[in-house]
Amino acid sequence: MSIFRALEISSQGMSAQRERVTLATSNLANAETTRGPDGGPYRRLDPVFEATVNDDGSAGVRVAEVVADPGEGKLTYMPGHPDADASGFVRLPDVNPVHEVVNLVSAQRGFEANASAVDTVKTMAQRALEIMR
Predict the structure, then answer these.
(1) Are 62 and 52 in contact (CB under 8 A)?
(2) What are the φ/ψ torsions at residue 31 (nearest 5 degrees)?
């Protein structure tokens, strides 16, 4: 495998983790959004990763799709809320802040692992150049 291919694979991994961070932060930011574009509560979003296989047999990763949570959300009693029904209940998104923070930490670790791989490839390339001198 070439040095450039190794860098490309790590770049794919970092891009996938960046997308995961973007979605987790969007979920946290909209944890109490009761009215989205469709009129209902915000729907939690998750990335679906897919392995990619290249012509040389090496593998990478990409975000195949972004999936919205199929759940209806949770009912919370808030009689003064503008979106409350006749009984005083509001449907909030089914976003668990603990779950989202775990996703953020996991994505951070994945990103750091790929960044470490890039540093290792860089060090190997530098040593190869030193040997050629």
Answers:
(1) yes
(2) -60, -20
**Whole-prediction pTM:** 0.84
pLDDT for 83 beyond 80: yes
**How many domains does the chain contain in total?**
1
Domain membership of residue 35 as a residue range: 3-132
Q: What is the rounded average pLDDT of the residues 28-41?
A: 89
88: left (phi over 0), alpha (psi -120 to 50) or beta: left
Q: Which two tokens stand for residue 68?
A: 């919205």
Report the 3 state secondary structure along the chain: CCHHHHHHHHHHHHHHHHHHHHHHHHHHHCCCCCCCCCCCCCCCEEEEEEEEECCCCCEEEEEEEEEECCCCCEEEECCCCCCCCCCCEEEECCCCHHHHHHHHHHHHHHHHHHHHHHHHHHHHHHHHHHHHC
Amino acid at 34: T
- Tokens standing for 59? 């593998």
Structure tokens at 64: 């195949």
Work out the widest C-alpha separation in the chain, in whole angstroms.
80
Locate tokens 């490839």: which residue?
A: 121
